[in-house]
Design a protein that fits this description.
By secondary structure, this protein is mostly helical. Among the domains are: about 1-150 and about 165-220 and about 345-430, no CATH class; about 555-655. It contains 30 helices and no strands. Helix 21 packs antiparallel against helix 23.
């Protein structure tokens, strides 16, 4: 199933085409790793970043047309003649920039026949590469944006603009630093490549098995242990991959069948895995690719972004973990048998070395304040070094080369997506739409911050139904974030708000890719899985609104304010989770569920200001009263009217 979900678009080649494919993909990763490690500073000549990006784009485009089939009906064991031509064209448009950029840099505004020709080739190549890897939706959106930049003079009102000639449009999209070779492609080529290589290196030396075993040791013995293992292992996988769909495919292939065997309904098992995997995008130390872009847009160290995202991510997983535990209690599920659990001593004896690269990554990113790319490459080097300690994890030369190739294969999607995002942003910049949209949103919102946040959230989710999180964030960071900051929102809160809601599209029906992948593995009903996933991930829909108004959850405030915000939010999340599941110590009727949800919602906002303090006090009072009531009612149910104890059999025994 995992192979079907991830690899059906790729060719399976042999002979000379396979050598070419591996050379392109391995060269792509190797070049990115050298740049991330700042090896170019050792050279006796100056290299423009655009020259490096030109080579990176050349290898990426050529790699797409060699490795990816034009359609699912195309032959998978050979490269069509036209794909060789397209691959050569991809090399050409990239190497042109790599070779001639030192002279082009001084005449980017000059339109010449060679720039127009290569721009006219580059744009369709990127559109076709994206179509093969992502599908038609993103391509049509990009085409619409390009046509808008050309024909904006036809449109009325706020959407009216001067428009551009085809020649000017081709040159601008191809060569300008606000377009193709802008922030999106730059961050992918210089930072994200290091972390993709880190995740692949960890898999290559067996670190994935260690993460799974640690999860089993930590949570396997408790009720609903299989689902808790899924949550913990998906979180750990997410910290090194940052990709929701890949987490579902890699981790869910193991955890979803395990949850089903333990007694979880298929739709619930799939939803748990999808939501847990999606949280990897917001869970430090390695978040989704959009987080690195956020650091670039804000001009802040990545460690600052990761630290700000930590508390909301922990609340997200607290809600998921609490609901998983209560679902297990409601279904009468018990922990895994002791003979199915690994021993902690054995796990740590063979796997302690894998803690070292993660510790190095956290220290360099969060404490030492290193550049993210250098931190990632040091983690890669440490991973291979510690993997060599034991024979079973020792990476051979062949395995190391395969890691480079597989990392390059993962990079192809990101290269196509970020290159196309560059074209979209370039079209908006050229047309002047980037300066108009914030004014339009502010006008529609009428100066109301709450209405502007709701509109922004809706835009994020709607765009995310057809676009990857990275593209959603890039687009809205340019178009919507200025409107949010104009109403006084802290820039980091505004960008994290957009990041969260872009990420939520992966678990929000109807077009939620993480949920679709999990439902396919579980063979569960898609819609039932999707609605359950929204319930499990409910905190992610609420917390962004909270930290916009009260940034204590982003570690912005005094220590007392931060601690109080965490305590009240955590209590609110637990009460909200009980209401969503409909179970605490026994099943809850709808009246009590409503009261639990209301109490939780009242507690989640930090107690800043008299009104919020009163809201928290009311929520806490109602929550404590409900818990005490349920404890007493549960005790009476167990003891019976005359004090006789009535044993409750677990689900396995009741069968």
């Amino acid at each position: 199933m995992a192979e079907i979900l991830t690899d059906s678009k790729f060719r399976t080649l042999d002979g000379a085409p396979r050598v070419v494919e591996h050379a392109l993909l391995g060269g792509l990763t190797g070049l990115g790793a050298l740049w991330a490690a700042e090896a170019h500073h050792w050279l006796p000549l100056a290299i423009f970043k655009e020259q490096y990006l030109g080579v990176f784009l050349a290898l990426g485009l050529a790699g797409v047309f060699v490795a990816v089939r034009p359609s699912v009906r195309a032959a998978a064991d050979r490269v069509a003649w036209f794909d060789w031509i397209l691959a050569a064209a991809g090399l050409g448009v990239g190497l042109y920039v790599a070779i001639l950029f030192p002279s082009l840099a001084y005449q980017l505004g000059v339109i010449s026949w060679d720039k127009v020709l290569l721009g006219a080739i580059a744009v369709p190549l990127i559109l076709e590469a994206t179509r093969r890897l992502v599908g038609w939706t993103l391509v049509w959106i990009a085409v619409a944006c390009i046509l808008y930049a050309k024909f904006a003079w036809i449109l009325p009102g706020a959407f009216h603009a001067k428009g551009s000639s085809w020649e000017r449009l081709a040159v601008y999209l191809y060569l300008d630093s606000n377009a193709l070779f802008g922030v999106a492609l730059s961050v992918t080529a210089s930072i994200v490549v290091a972390f993709i290589l880190f995740g692949q290196a960890l898999y290559a030396v067996g670190g994935d098995r260690f993460l799974t075993d640690v999860s089993l040791v930590a949570m396997g013995r408790y009720r609903g242990g299989s689902a808790k293992v899924a949550v913990v292992s998906s979180t750990l996988f997410g910290t090194v991959s940052g990709s929701a769909v890949s987490n579902v495919v890699v981790d869910g292939a193991v955890t979803i069948p395990m949850m089903k065997r333990a007694g979880y309904p298929p739709h619930l098992a799939a939803a748990i895995e999808a939501v847990a995997s999606n949280g990897g995008q917001i869970m430090p130390p390695v978040m989704g690719a959009a987080a690195f872009l956020m650091a670039e847009y804000l001009g802040a160290p990545y460690g600052t972004i990761a630290l700000a995202a930590l508390l909301p991510a922990l609340l997200y997983y607290l809600a998921l973990f609490t609901q998983v535990d209560l679902e297990a209690a409601r279904h009468g599920l018990v922990g895994l048998p002791a003979d199915q659990l690994p021993r902690l001593r054995a796990v740590m004896r063979s796997g302690w070395v894998f803690v070292v690269p993660l510790a190095v990554l956290v220290h360099t990113l969060m404490i030492a304040g290193w550049d993210a790319a250098k931190s990632g490459m040091l983690a890669v080097a440490v991973t291979f070094a510690v993997g060599a300690v034991f024979r079973e994890s020792r990476p051979s030369v062949r395995r190391a080369l395969r890691t480079l190739v597989e990392s390059g294969r993962v990079l192809l999607d990101l290269i196509a997506i970020t290159a196309l995002a560059g074209l979209v942003i370039g079209a908006f910049q050229l047309s002047g739409f980037t300066s108009k949209l914030p004014l339009i949103l502010l006008d529609v919102a009428g100066g109301s911050l709450l209405l502007l946040l709701v509109l922004s959230a809706l835009v994020c989710v709607v765009l995310g139904m057809s676009l990857p999180t990275t593209v959603v964030y890039i687009t809205l960071a340019v178009l919507v974030a200025p409107a949010l900051t104009q109403l006084g929102i802290a820039p980091i809160a505004a960008h994290l708000f957009l990041f969260y809601y872009g990420m939520l599209s992966l678990i929000t029906p109807p077009n939620c890719l993480a949920t679709f992948a999990a439902a396919a593995i579980a063979r569960s009903d898609f819609w039932k899985t999707g609605w359950t996933g929204m319930r499990l991930g409910i905190v992610a829909y609420l917390v962004p609104f909270v930290f916009v108004y009260q940034p204590a959850l982003l570690f912005q405030g005094s220590p007392g304010e931060i601690v109080l915000a965490v305590v009240t939010a955590a209590a609110g999340v637990i009460l909200l989770s009980a209401g969503c599941v409909g179970y605490l110590l026994r099943p809850l009727d709808w009246t009590k569920r409503t009261l639990f949800i209301a109490a939780g919602l009242a507690l989640i906002p930090p107690p800043a200001g008299a009104a919020w303090i009163m809201t928290n006090v009311v929520g806490l009072s109602v929550g404590v009263a409900l818990v005490v009531w349920e404890r007493r009612a549960r005790a009476l149910t167990i003891s019976g009217p005359r004090g006789a104890t009535a044993p409750i059999a677990p689900r396995a025994a009741r069968r």
